[in-house]
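Job type: complex structure
Entries:
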Amino acid sequence: MLALVAAYAIVALLSSVLSARLGRRVFLIPAALSAVGAVWFALQAPAVADGQLLQERLEWMPTLGVALDLRLTPPAWLLAMVVTGVGALIFAYCAWYFRSRSLAPRTVGLLTGFAGSMLGLVLSDDLVLLVVFWELTTVFSYLLVGLNHHVRKTRIAAHSALVVTTIGGLSLLVGVLMVGHEAGSLSLAAVLADAPQTAVASIGIALAVVGALAKSAIVPFQFWLPGAMAAPTPVSAFLHAAAMVKAGVFLVAVLTPAFADLPWWRPSLIVLGAVTMLLGAARALKQTDAKVLLAHGTVSQLGLLITILGIGTAQAMLAGLAMLAAHAMFKAALFMVVGAVDRTYGTRDLRRLGGVGREHPVLAIAAFVAAAAMAGVPPAFAFVAKESGLAAAEHAAHMDGLDPWVGYVALVALAVGAAMTVAYTLRLTVTVFLGRRRDEATASGDLAWPMVAFPAALAAAGLGLGFAGEAVTRVLEPAFQPALGADDIERLALWHGVTVPLLLTLAALVVGTLVWLSLGRRLRDHELVDPFERGFRGLIRGIDRLAVEVTGRTQTGSLPLHVSTILAAVVALPGVVVLATGSFIQPVRLADSPAQLVVVAAVAVAAIFAANTRGRLKTFMLLSVVGYGVALLFLLHGAPDLALTQVLCETVLLVLLVLVLRRQPKYFTNRPLKSGRWLRAALAVGVGAVASLIAVAAAGSRIDTPISDRFYERAYDFGYGSNIVNVTLVDIRAWDTLGEIAVLLVAATGVASLIFIRTRSADPRGTLRGDRGRPDASGGRSSAFLRGGRGIDAPEAAPVLEMMTRLMFPVMIVVSIYLLLVGHNLPGGGFAGGLVGGLAIALRYLAAGRDELANAAPFDAGRLLGVGIATAAASMLWPVLVGGRIGESYRIDLDLPVLGESYLVTTVVFDVGVYLIVVGAMLDFVRSLGAGIDVQVRQGVAPVPVASSDRARTGESS
Amino acid sequence: MIPSLALVVAGGILIACGVYLILERSILRIMAGVILASNGVNLLFLVASGAAGRAPIIGEGREEIADPLPQAFVLTAIVISLAASAFMLALSYRSFQLDGHDEVADDVEDALVRRRAEADMTSASFAERPGVDDDTESGGVQAPDAVPEAALPDDAAHEHLPAPGADHSDSEQTIDPEGRG
């Protein structure tokens, strides 16, 4: 069974891929699979009848008691036969119904996926697994109804179906968990064997039944089903007649033996079922679209099933399950017939059809056989099942321990429902197949024989099974044995003598024909709005309006306002907590050293000026003062690595800023709102104060031994390095670093894509060919550098800088590699080394322009980033191959000829990856913001600052 | 382990100045604010991480060194704020290229939603593009011989759609998020 469900999943994935190549014939693959499944299940019938339980179990979440647990109980067997047997015919029918040209490739995959989930649903013994499959069928149904999502009506129908059935699914999940908790087991068999009798369990079962009713389109949820007819006809036949809507009925049937005696069970199910049955039938009697008529008929029949099962006796279970199978057969057959008519005549409108029987007699015969079953005419299996249902109601009226009204109400409802079913059946078949064509413009097309053969086969099966009532009873016997009145049941048979049910059936046939003659022949267009549907739409619209109002009020779209809200919350919540608890009251000293005091004063003054100046360059010069000052503070605190990195980063930032600011106006826009400025200042001071207080409070909370206490020993024992910060980065917390360099990579790529957004084709000289500016091949490759300097314009040339670069570049490269290699033991490492390397490349660009940059780094920055991240990742993963842990480091002792004994720590490879990424990012930055902007200036697409203004001329227009 | 008031004050001032700038609309000023604030946070990180000491390198006294773990955190933070700054620089440049300024305008979508709320309308997902209502039920490419969908059960949803050309709908037509450049 697991294999079959898995096979459906695999076929679902593969068939969509093949759909484009095979066209509509792709449906034959799932058809074959379903046929195999049907044969296999059919062969299990004797074992099921003998009460043997076929079980397959695979642990899934053992700690939660959830398993992939499939069991072939009699009801499961029946539903599995429906899914695979009826499914096989519908899949085969699809191969002729759809047109290859208009077939969306996902259709076959979705339909197969649905079949697999439905099979899983009926076989699941684990309640959680059942809910999972349940929701899967909901999702597949949604996607299939909304197959043509270009049409609004279809989208609304799919949306209603999804919302209603998902609400039901949620209810089911909660119910299942409550029942599972009370029963102490999530196994359906265990819950049924020892039904928990608590109030919680009763509520849980009620919630599960609500879910079942929503799925099976019972009042007040019934409106989604007719809407779901927007799906292609075979989909409707499978999901919305034969299989999916039966899930709820199936669940009610399975729960009946254990929970039918709950006080609310019989009254609510019988009343809701009867109302649904009569409402659906009344609506079906007024439809003019054949398919929608069938849909309302389905609603009615689902109500019938719930009414029968609601009686809650063994007889009712037998009748309900038999009727379920019978309905699947005749309704799927009728849907397929309607689909064939639709395809042949191009319409399903009763007002335009008529006389189809003369042109397609075989189709008409199939339709009449299936329709006779729907109307309950002997000897169809549906007749047998309906007789059994009437008998169940009649028995219940006299049964001990049951209120007599249960039986009488059900009996009356079933009889009236049967009569109305006869009426709408006649309306459908007589109007379509007999008489004369109502609209001469409706022309008959070709009809492929399989589109007749498959519904005919299904109709014939429904007829033939009528003679096999005893066999069906035997197979289902183990299921209804535990239910009420099991020792006194009327087995399924064509002839029980002249009984009340038989008389009622005959009366229903007569009355139904009369109803059809008087009411059912009118073909007027009825614009009836379902009150439940209207209520649902109103609810959804109300929610949408509420969302618009809430969003409109809270989401102003102003970035400063949003940030202010967040920051105000920071002041209001953590700030108040810190103040209230007084945890910030800690002893402090003025400064760690006099030098610190001086630097802090400088930093503070620079920061305050930076926040208030209007000049762009000035702001960032002051910002540099702050940055270098902070570096000094790091150094004074005992953090040389931080100081080194901070200094290098500030330098890089300064270079990048100059590159961008050259194309921007001198001043920031002056903000005229004085009051707003004071408000911002107040908020800013508040946030700064709260952050400071929290920092002090945090410092005072350091009462436990810090986690880094053992880093001192560990750094050397495990990381083989003396620089604890570097060992932390590349070894102890290497995952963090890996994430960080990934951020760097993304930022670099982002910068490049913002600049090279459309230069790929616009670059006339090819110096920035490709995304990241590979150098021009004609420039040649030479070991001499600063050759490109000859290409720079004379006014921009800087001979002194050029000279300095000649001297500095090799030195900087050596320093950068030195920093990389010593990083493990001394301040330095991949970050610092990479930044120095990147600065060296930037220097070559600054000295001699973009051609020089291309010569200095004749490779793609993106590739460098890729190699870097791959190196870092590989260096973390490789220990696994030799039996170590991810990120484990090893020490390799070396005996070098000149340098003497030395050793290599494997994590240096990780640091090399970091180094490559930093250099790659730097290269991307300089290439984009430097060379990229140069090219755009030359092309005239760069922005041009307007003199004495805070604006610039846009670049795109020129 | 007594924290230094000077560091605390410096961190507080940097964060305050940073926040003041972050609340601006110019991308470069926001970027300056982010740099200032992250410097301030890094300083406070040092405050919270214990006393100053010698560099955390083995060979210095075990008890004298500063806590290395926060230093590793701050080191990564420094590099990430550099990357973020570079990205914002590129954003600012691009904004100048397209608009001639780098100020963050109010979100157009949000303004639309606000107007819908004022006009008592539903969200845009309920609205409909006209003229795409005829397609095959299969959802694929439309076949030339495809049959128009027959009448389905009527849906009450029509009534809450604004009529084309109604006075509310002009707000959608005048605001075009794509039309900035």
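Summary: Chain A has 35 helices and six strands. The first helix of chain A runs from residue 2 to 22.
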